[in-house]
């Protein structure tokens, strides 16, 4: 593979259930990100990781957790899903290019919480 | 706080017509600026970026953008739109992290 993969492609989930969205990159990028995309709001950063072993909170972190055990994987967990977490989730990664973090995006996971 | 504004939610153009998508940002210094495109059901693809230097930036698929410091703008242009350009376009500013505008959805009439 080349780039970023996300799984599952889509999921319907009952409220209160736990769910982990998977993200894997093979570009050896140090930084990885999780965004949610909602109509009229663009993409909003949930959590990020600048390097393996570290994570940070983005703009909308509540209800989500992440881990970064290695360079390639950056799973996003919803401990107890709520309907407001219905969204399309994108994972992204970046190396350091010309002093800026150009980000590469995965294909997204469409999550519906009922 | 830093922000990115894309004033046009939807734009419809005829195939072959010219296109300009507007983007304004709010930031004290000159940030890094990006335009991304998202086709239906797909992730985001980088069209072009501005870091410094020449204020007219060329990107992929025939797109270009011009940085205007005095107007805090980074508008995206294409001289002749193709039907395959129908997509959603996002302007983004990097200030430690990427901040995205809400997007502009482009429809192309034959």
Defining key terms:
heterodimer, A: 114 residues, mainly beta, Immunoglobulin-like, four-stranded antiparallel sheet, 11 strands, B: 110 residues, six-stranded mixed sheet
Account of the protein in words:
- The complex is a heterodimer of chains A (114) and B (110).
- Chain A is built from no helices and 11 strands.
- By secondary structure, chain A is mostly beta strands.
- Chain A has one domain (4-113): Sandwich (Immunoglobulin-like), CATH 2.60.40.
- In chain A, a hairpin with a 6-residue loop joins strand 5 (42-49) and strand 6.
- Chain A is globular and about 40 Å long.
- The mean pLDDT of chain A is 92.
- By secondary structure, chain B is an all-beta fold.
- Chain B has one domain (3-109): Immunoglobulins (Immunoglobulin-like, Sandwich).
- Chain B has strands spanning 3-5, 10-14, 19-21, 24-26, 32-38, 44-50, 56-58, 64-68, 73-78, 87-95, 97-100, 104-109.
- In chain B, the strands form 3 sheets. In chain B, strands 2, 5, 6, 10, 11 and 12 form a 6-stranded mixed β-sheet that branches. A 4-stranded antiparallel β-sheet of chain B has the order 3-9-8-7, with no helix packed on it. In chain B, strands 1-4 form a two-stranded antiparallel ribbon.
- Chain B is globular and about 40 Å long.
- Chain B starts with a strand and ends with a strand.
- The mean pLDDT of chain B is 92.
- Chains A and B meet through strand 5 and strand 10 of A and strand 5, strand 6 and strand 11 of B.
Mean pLDDT of chain A: 92
Q: What is the subunit organization of this protein?
A: heterodimer
CATH names the topology of chain A as Immunoglobulin-like
Indicate the CATH class of chain B.
Mainly Beta
The span between the termini of chain A is 33 Å
């Amino acid at each position: 593979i080349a780039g970023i993969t996300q799984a599952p492609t889509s999921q319907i989930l009952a409220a209160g259930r736990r769910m982990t969205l998977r993200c894997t990159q093979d570009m050896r990028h140090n930084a990885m990100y999780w965004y949610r995309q909602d109509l009229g709001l663009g993409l909003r950063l949930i959590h990020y990781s600048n390097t393996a072993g570290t994570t940070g909170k983005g703009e909308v972190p509540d209800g989500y957790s992440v881990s970064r055990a290695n360079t390639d994987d950056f799973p996003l967990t919803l401990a107890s899903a709520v309907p407001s977490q219905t969204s399309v989730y994108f994972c992204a990664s970046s190396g350091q290019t010309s002093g800026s973090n150009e980000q590469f995006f995965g294909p997204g996971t469409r999550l519906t919480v009922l | 706080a830093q922000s990115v504004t894309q004033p046009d939610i939807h734009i419809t153009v005829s195939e072959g017509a010219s296109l300009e998508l507007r983007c304004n940002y709010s930031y004290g210094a000159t940030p890094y600026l990006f335009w991304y495109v998202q086709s239906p059901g797909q992730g985001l693809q980088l069209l072009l970026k501005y870091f410094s230097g020449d204020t007219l930036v060329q990107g992929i698929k025939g797109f270009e953008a011009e940085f205007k410091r005095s107007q805090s703008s980074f508008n995206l242009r294409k001289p002749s739109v193709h039907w395959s350009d129908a997509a959603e376009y996002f302007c983004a500013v990097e200030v430690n992290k990427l901040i995205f505008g809400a997007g502009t959805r482009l429809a192309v009439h034959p």
